[in-house]
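Propose amino acids for all 461 sites.
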């Protein structure tokens, strides 16, 4: 029989929780303060779950969370916090709590939390893809660290914020967290926050009732309802407008949503994983992102390394990508010759893995005799491309390359140099996609909203 320790100094709450757990077929022990709880945890009894109040007569429930996180790592611990006290809940999650409940305790939410905690996979299994293969390719130190962190955070219900450059695998990391956690049998719903028109955001996220607005011919669930029992992945969360950020914050805190046109709230059980290639802290400082929402989303931060930070993994990536691209081809997978591989490992990959895929797809079309050469890659080291794009880089540059102001290689202010480089990259992508902005944004690894903003800022018609 599974064994649960509940810690609270209010007898009626203890009785309510104990009765609920007993009806679920669980064995229950009680404690009414921190000292008694620690004594029971250290007494040799094996517990499958610990549920503690945050405010206790002799101290803070956070002490219990920290003790469990340090000494009994396989024991999930959840906390009960006062209504509206978001700081306590976030502090507990950061300290290693599995999840939290808000007073007054909802018995439905209590049962859901207990079932989830008791179905946690064993720690140390490692993030696996369906089919049992490692989905995160490579053996470099940065990616091994990411695997370890995914394995750890998958055992929690805490919100995770995934950072990293475009094309670095943020959605893949989110899917692995979902797949290795208690919600693995639930839905994984990925939402690109930058691709939804602002006027439709509320109905898309929360759903709507029939007749709520013109065209609402029947009830419809939103992303939160569809993801109930699973994970909601908010990609490019920095693109959310401020008005929507307020609504999202309330849903995360209350765990309830109200459909457009409805007067009733309904509970939702979702885990939030967010991601962006932008610096969210900088967005907060600039006033484009709410500090309180950042505080709730960024409980655990997972940084995906860029491909240039793990150059030793490039050969493994290249082999896997070519294998996938040529799986259905009769002539099989071509080989990268030594010069081509050396060039790839020197390249900086601003677009990361997504750019590597594009490069190899192009090389696959150009190669012959089953070998991909340097010429087939049509690639120059990034520093060469930057140098050649500078004014005066040709015959008129003069000895030493210095001109009317500034050092060699950077003859004008940095921002002007960056704007020029960005403008050239966008124009190149637009030309390749016949000025289809949606396709150009995809090629560049940014959102449609982002390319539209950048084109306006840079004066691109």
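Proposal:
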């Amino acid at each position: 029989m599974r064994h649960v320790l509940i810690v609270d100094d209010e007898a009626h709450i203890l009785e309510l929780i104990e009765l609920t757990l007993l009806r679920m077929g669980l064995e229950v022990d009680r404690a009414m303060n921190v000292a008694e709880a620690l004594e029971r945890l250290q007494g040799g009894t094996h517990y499958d779950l610990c549920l503690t109040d945050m405010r206790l007569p002799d101290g803070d429930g956070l002490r219990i969370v920290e003790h469990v996180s340090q000494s009994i790592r396989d024991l999930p611990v959840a906390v009960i916090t006062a209504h509206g006290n978001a700081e306590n809940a976030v502090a507990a999650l950061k300290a290693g709590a599995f999840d939290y409940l808000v007073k007054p305790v909802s018995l439905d939410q209590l049962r859901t939390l207990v079932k989830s905690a008791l179905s946690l996979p064993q720690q140390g299994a490692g993030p696996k893809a369906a089919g049992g293969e490692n989905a995160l390719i490579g053996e470099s130190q940065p990616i091994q660290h990411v695997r370890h962190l995914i394995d750890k955070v998958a055992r929690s219900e805490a919100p995770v914020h995934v950072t990293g450059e475009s094309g670095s695998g943020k959605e893949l990391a989110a899917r692995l967290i979902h797949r290795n956690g208690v919600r693995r049998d639930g839905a994984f719903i990925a939402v690109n926050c930058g691709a939804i028109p602002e006027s439709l955001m509320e109905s898309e996220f929360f759903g709507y009732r029939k007749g709520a607005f013109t065209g609402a011919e029947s009830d419809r669930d939103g992303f939160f309802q569809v993801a109930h029992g699973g994970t909601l992945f908010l990609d490019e969360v920095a693109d959310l407008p401020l008005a929507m950020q307020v609504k999202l914050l309330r849903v995360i805190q209350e765990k309830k949503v109200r459909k457009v046109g409805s007067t009733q709230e309904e509970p939702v059980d979702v885990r939030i994983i967010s991601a962006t290639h932008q610096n969210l802290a900088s967005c907060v400082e600039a006033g484009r992102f709410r500090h309180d929402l950042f505080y709730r989303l960024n409980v655990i931060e997972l940084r995906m390394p860029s491909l240039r930070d793990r150059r030793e993994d490039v050969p493994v990536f290249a082999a896997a990508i070519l294998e996938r691209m040529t799986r259905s081809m009769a002539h099989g997978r071509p080989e990268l010759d030594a010069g081509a591989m050396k060039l790839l490992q020197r390249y900086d990959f601003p677009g990361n893995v997504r750019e590597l895929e594009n490069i190899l797809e192009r090389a696959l079309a150009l190669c012959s005799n089953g070998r991909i050469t340097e010429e087939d890659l049509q690639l120059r080291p990034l520093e060469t491309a930057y140098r050649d794009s500078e004014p005066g880089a040709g015959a008129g540059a003069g000895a030493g390359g210095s001109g009317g102001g500034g050092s060699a290689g950077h003859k004008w202010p940095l921002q002007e140099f960056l704007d020029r480089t960005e403008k050239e990259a966008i124009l190149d992508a637009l030309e390749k996609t016949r000025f289809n902005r949606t396709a150009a944004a995809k090629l560049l690894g940014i959102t449609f909203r982002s390319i539209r903003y950048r084109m306006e800022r840079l004066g691109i018609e």
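The two ends are 69 Å apart (CA to CA). Residues 164 and 304 are 5 Å apart (CA to CA).
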